[in-house]
Amino acid sequence: MKHTRKTRKPISAETIARLADENSDVFRFFTNRGRMMGPIQRVNVDLALGMLEELDRAAKELNISRQAVIKTLIRQALDQQYLARNSGASANRRN
Fold first, then answer.
1. Count of beta carbons in the 10 Å neighbourhood of residue 36
2. Which residues contact 29 (CB under 8 A, 6 or more apart)?
3. Do 67 and 76 form a contact (C-beta atoms < 8 A)?
4. Rg of the chain over CA atoms, in angstroms?
5. Which residues contact 20 (CB under 8 A, 6 or more apart)?
6. Residue 16 burial by CB count (10 A; 0-12/13-18/19+): exposed, middle or buried?
7. Per-residue pLDDT tens for 22-77?
8. How many CB atoms lie within 10 A of CB 33?
9. How crowded is the C-beta side of 65, counted as CA atoms within 13 Å?
């Protein structure tokens, strides 16, 4: 019979905070992998009905929430803008 490792249930942030408050060693919970997410700011956006329907169709096709579609599309647009801006700057340096 093969021996398999038991997967541990992730420990909640509240549990880690409680252990830290009790002066327990919590360094084992931090791997320095991943990135720190900043605070989230809630915003309101007014959209035309047609655009909202398109977003809902995309969300249904992708089987994700409308919010996830919006975040993904905004991230892609910002990345494209960043790349276009930097490629234009590097082209100007070559001239």
1. 4
2. 11, 16
3. no
4. 22
5. 26
6. middle
7. 998 888 887 777 777 778 889 999 999 999 999 999 999 999 999 999 999 999 99
8. 5
9. 3
